[in-house]
């Protein structure tokens, strides 16, 4: 069984109130080295068999169609989890 990870982030021009709340809380907890936070979403999609280029392309299409709101979010990564862990990242072509 293979797994594909899809990561979605708010577009840079979109206000990120959750990120602002986190960046405000970090110094109060002693984490003073961070100056900005953007919070996104991560999806893990399981497939029967291996993750092929066709599976990655389908995951990319699903990410653009359902998993993200293209008006306010960018799909920033679609990758094979196992290849990513092995250091041989395989990603679908991102726009």
TrEMBL record:
Main location: cytoplasm
SUPFAM superfamilies: PurS-like (SSF82697)
An MF annotation (GO) of this entry: phosphoribosylformylglycinamidine synthase activity
Any one GO cellular component localisation term in the record: cytoplasm
EC number of the protein: 6.3.5.3
GO BP field: 'de novo' IMP biosynthetic process
Entry-linked HAMAP family: PurS
Subunit and interaction comment: Part of the FGAM synthase complex composed of 1 PurL, 1 PurQ and 2 PurS subunits.
The protein, known as: Phosphoribosylformylglycinamidine synthase subunit PurS
Gene name for this UniProt entry: purS
């Amino acid at each position: 069984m293979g797994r594909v990870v899809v990561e979605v982030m708010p577009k840079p021009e979109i206000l990120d109130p959750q990120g602002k709340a986190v960046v405000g809380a970090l110094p109060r907890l002693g984490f003073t080295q961070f100056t900005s936070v953007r919070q996104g979403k991560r999806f893990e999609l399981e497939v029967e068999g291996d993750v092929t280029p066709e599976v990655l392309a389908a995951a990319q299409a699903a990410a653009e169609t359902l998993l993200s709101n293209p008006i306010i979010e960018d799909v920033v990564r679609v990758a094979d989890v196992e290849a990513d862990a092995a250091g041989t990242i395989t990603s679908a072509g991102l726009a």
